[in-house]
């Protein structure tokens, strides 16, 4: 049982977590009925609205949901958690911890980073397509307001992103109830339509999907690029297990969300059978009677805003993890809740996503056009998750090859089929997630490469602590000692003396009490300070202190000092002198390689969050010692 499920009366706690899971986890996949079936019957596919085609499409949608979401994610992928946390970055951290270093690990890491980049690209596209698809119902209710759909979508997205700085805690309180209403509404709409054409339930038989492919040939396989829109939220089931736990998510999916989605999809098929082209233009809103279409637009818009909110906060968490694992520079991260560690706000990421989403809406203008850019990001991430899942099953669970290989082959065949069919849409919008994913991959790989070069350079100029202490003991008057406590900050044990030696080189004095503080990010999501902080007295007033944090946490000097005082120290966090290194990078134009990468690294390093803010050091108590490093 994960930490999210471990407290409170079991039944009440499970119900509360399940309600939250309905609101947050299933926001994305819960709004896919707005556009999935509509895209399958879009003019580009040229499908007739006869029973064979309708049942064939419904069978494809049904089995895609059952195989990918239910079988793959709910039953298998969710088992691969990293101490209760899920998501492609958590899975990558688990793989790195198990695999160590080497060429094989490097390839696996690249797969994880590609998945991360594509998931961030998904975070750009989902809010745009979700909001604009909901607002397109206005065409049916008041056609004269059609020109206002795009401006209204842009305004809603702008307001949504501007409110992110207030935190999602208050918004989260209404996630569950609103989405419960949403799923209840779409289930009832679908059921009322099915009762008039109960024969659509025949689509549960996979023979209809096979017959669809045999009848249409290669053109039939192209429709998989639209069918995939029904499973776009599958990755969220895995990414959010740390917030709600596996059991509440599975309970919500099987008992409530899955039945509601199936009823609505089959209801859309039924209305297309009855009304043909008139309903196929927007089968979701065609389910509702005329008097309910306008209220349904408002309900759908609220649901899509929640779906967008889930993707935005997911992007914040993903970036936070990447920063802590050393794949992105330190960014300003604001914790918006004192009770929940996952409630964070990243201003730079928020601004980037806001601009990207609004630009996508203004450029594509319809959900039909945006759908071309949607599937590639989702299916690409799923493929990367498959690779990491295979490695974890082999290295962490010790599964035999015959146990895991058939399962992963099934997953890869399904996901690669969806991915390949979406590749045909590269020139009609699919290039956007590919370009965005490549951009994020370049950023992460460049930062990792640059920080390793910095660490290597700093380590070359360092000396062992034992040698320094021996010199101080043998020559007590060599270095003057002044009253007080100095803390020398470092994130790399190999470079822990670099800042101190730089200080001695210029100032020739040391404080009476010297703390060498090393902050390390572990490959687990959370650590307790009482268990992860170690103190080692080395004599001559020197103390080695190592503080370990999980990749879902941010270091805090106040917390560290408070614990040190509990161990017998007498420290005032506002009276300590903090020494940190300030590195400036110099690009060597003649060095082999691509100068662009070095310049990109220098730009990111120059604009990263200062150590003063990152470690929450008291203003006015920090001494920065500059070092220039060639790169």
Query: Can you tell me the CATH topology of the largest domain?
Result: Amino acid/polyamine transporter I
Q: What fraction of residues sit in β-strands?
A: 5-15%
Tally of DSSP β-strands: 8
CATH C-level label of the largest domain: Mainly Alpha
What does this structure look like?
Helix content is 62%, strand content 10%. The chain is an alpha/beta fold. The chain has 2 domains: 16-449, Up-down Bundle (Amino acid/polyamine transporter I); 464-630, no CATH class. It has a 6-stranded mixed sheet with strand order 5-6-4-3-7-8, with helices on both faces. α4 (51-76) packs across α10, α6 (103-135) runs antiparallel to α20 and α9 (169-194) packs across α18 (290-324). It is elongated, with a radius of gyration of 27 Å.
Show the helix and strand layout.
Layout: H1 10-24, H2 27-30, H3 36-40, H4 51-76, H5 88-99, H6 103-135, H7 138-141, H8 149-162, H9 169-194, H10 207-216, H11 218-222, H12 224-227, H13 234-239, H14 241-244, H15 246-275, H16 277-280, H17 283-286, H18 290-324, E1 334-335, E2 344-345, H19 347-364, H20 367-395, H21 401-423, H22 431-460, H23 465-474, E3 480-490, H24 498-507, E4 509-521, H25 529-532, E5 533-539, E6 542-549, H26 557-566, E7 577-586, H27 595-606, H28 611-614, E8 622-630
Parallel strand pairs: 3-4, 3-7, 4-6, 7-8
Antiparallel strand pairs: 1-2, 5-6
Helix pairs in contact: 1-9, 1-15, 4-10, 4-15, 5-6, 5-20, 6-8, 6-18, 6-19, 6-20, 6-22, 8-19, 9-15, 9-18, 20-21, 20-22, 22-27
């Amino acid at each position: 049982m994960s930490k999210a499920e471990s407290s409170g009366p079991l039944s009440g706690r499970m119900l509360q977590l399940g309600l939250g899971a309905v609101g947050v986890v299933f926001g994305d996949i819960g709004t896919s009925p707005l556009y999935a079936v509509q895209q399958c019957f879009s003019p580009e596919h040229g499908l007739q609205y006869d029973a064979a085609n309708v049942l064939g499409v419904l069978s494809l949608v049904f089995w895609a949901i059952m195989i990918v979401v239910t079988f793959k994610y709910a039953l298998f992928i969710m088992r691969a958690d990293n101490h209760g946390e899920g998501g492609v970055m958590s899975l990558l951290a688990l793989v790195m911890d198990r695999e160590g270093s080497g060429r094989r690990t490097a390839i696996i890491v690249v797969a994880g980073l590609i998945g991360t980049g594509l998931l961030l690209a998904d975070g750009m596209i989902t809010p745009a397509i979700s909001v604009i698809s909901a607002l397109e119902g206005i065409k049916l209710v008041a056609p004269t307001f059609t020109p206002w759909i795009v401006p209204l979508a842009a305004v809603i997205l702008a307001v949504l992103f501007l409110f992110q700085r207030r935190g999602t805690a208050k918004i989260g309180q209404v996630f569950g109830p609103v989405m419960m209403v949403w799923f209840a509404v779409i289930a009832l709409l679908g059921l009322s339509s099915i009762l008039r054409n109960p024969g659509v339930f025949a689509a549960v038989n996979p023979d209809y999907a096979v017959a669809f492919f045999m009848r249409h040939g290669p053109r039939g396989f192209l429709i998989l690029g639209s069918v995939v829109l029904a499973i776009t939220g599958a990755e969220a089931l895995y990414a959010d297990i740390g917030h709600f736990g596996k059991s509440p998510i599975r309970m919500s999916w099987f008992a409530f969300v899955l039945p509601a989605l199936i009823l609505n999809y089959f209801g859309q098929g039924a209305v297309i059978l009855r009304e043909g082209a008139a309903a196929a233009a927007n089968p979701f809103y065609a389910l509702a009677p005329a008097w309910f279409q306008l209220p349904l637009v408002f309900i759908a818009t609220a649901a899509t805003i929640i779906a967008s909110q889930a993707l935005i906060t997911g992007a914040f968490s993903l970036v936070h993890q990447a920063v802590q694992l050393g794949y992105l520079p330190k960014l300003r991260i604001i914790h918006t809740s004192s009770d929940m560690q996952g409630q964070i706000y990243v201003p730079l990421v928020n601004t980037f996503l806001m601009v990207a989403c609004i630009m996508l809406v203004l450029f594509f203008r319809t959900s039909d056009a945006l759908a071309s850019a949607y599937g590639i990001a989702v299916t690409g991430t799923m493929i990367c998750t498959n690779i990491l899942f295979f490695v974890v099953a082999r290295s962490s669970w010790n599964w035999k090859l015959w146990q895991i290989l058939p399962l992963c082959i099934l997953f890869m065949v399904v996901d690669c089929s969806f991915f390949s069919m979406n590749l045909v849409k590269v020139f009609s919008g699919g290039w956007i997630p590919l370009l965005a994913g490549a951009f994020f991959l370049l950023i992460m790989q460049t930062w990792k490469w640059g920080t390793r070069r910095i660490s290597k350079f700093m380590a070359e100029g360092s000396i062992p602590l034992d040698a320094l202490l021996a010199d101080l003991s043998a020559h007590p008057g060599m270095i003057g000692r002044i009253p007080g406590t100095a803390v020398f900050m470092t994130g790399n044990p190999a470079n822990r003396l670099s800042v101190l030696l730089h200080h001695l080189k210029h100032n020739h004095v040391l404080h009476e009490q010297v703390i060498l503080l090393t902050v390390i990010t572990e490959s687990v999501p959370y650590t307790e300070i009482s268990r992860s902080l170690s103190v080692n007295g080395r004599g001559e007033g020197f103390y080695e202190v190592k503080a370990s944090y999980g990749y879902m946490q941010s270091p805090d000097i106040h917390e560290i000092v408070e614990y040190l005082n509990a161990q017998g120290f007498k420290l005032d966090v506002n009276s300590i002198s903090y020494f940190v290194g300030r590195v400036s990078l110099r690009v060597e134009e003649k060095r082999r390689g691509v100068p662009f990468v070095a310049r990109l690294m220098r730009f990111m390093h120059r604009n990263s969050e200062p150590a003063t803010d990152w470690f929450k050091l008291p203003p006015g108590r920090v001494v920065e010692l500059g070092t220039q490093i060639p790169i």
